[in-house]
Amino acid sequence: MVAEEARRTARRLTPLVAPPPTFDHFLAIDWSGARGRHHKGIALGLCAQGTGAPALLSPPSPRGWSREAVLRYLREDLPPRTLVGLDLGIALPFADAGAFFPGLAQSPDTARALWARIEGICEEDEDLGANAFVDHPDFAPYFRRHGGREGERFHLPGSDHRRGRLRVTEAAQARLGCKPYSNFNLVGAAQVGKSSLTGMRLLHRLTGTLPVWPIDPLPPSGSVVCEIYTTLAAVEAGRRAGRAKITERSDLDTALDALGSQPRGETGPIDDHSADALLTSAWLRGAAARRELWHPPELTPELATREGWTFGAL
User: Fold this and answer.
1) Which contiguous run of DSSP H or E holds residue 28?
2) pTM of the predicted model as reported, rounded to 2 decimal places
């Protein structure tokens, strides 16, 4: 009841909230936490204002994008006034237990402190990897890892939620019909933990270059990074959450048309990473001007600096 009342209050106050900045470009990044230096799972979709079809950015290597190559692109080649959406979790759960790592002395108390801790432990990991962090004796007990290695602190005492601890924004995703998994889960096709931890290293490296909403305040102009969940874009394009993945170019064009975008006019198969990036780029273009998406009712200043939020989750 409290959350519902907060949402009603936010709707009443929305007209009084300053409008979001105007963006000229919209970049969606389908990310990967896999081992190695080049990743088939990374795809970048970019579109500009208007209705033009989004384009897939070519990686600098024929072997595909590396995470460090994406970092260089964001630092050096990003078009001006771009809204960048990263398909990963920008923090770990905090609000449910009052800490990222309850019971651990000197547990980080903000998302940026968490990013810095991961970076400090993983400096030697290849291509912004995070294996050293999840294997660290202080932090391994909080993760579900391969080989049946579920840490004794993966669940909170008294909780049997099989998907693990969730952030407040992930509960909002679930209300929209999605099935989010904990960022502490590193196992299975639906896991996002590896992508999230490697993404936090990327975000740490972007400090001073790009603001990350809502951990940083939304600036009046310029480029901004936000967290996205590509399933939200697919649902808004008319697909079901359980059938969000697109593997045919004709289906991608149908979804783009539902979002008011011109089609790409291609036929044949497409990998789901590329389709996710292209479709979510077009979705960002329409969603960026919706001021209510920048002011979700449950997003307090304290929660913003600790857990962040998924753009589009209400």
Assistant:
1) strand 25-30
2) 0.92
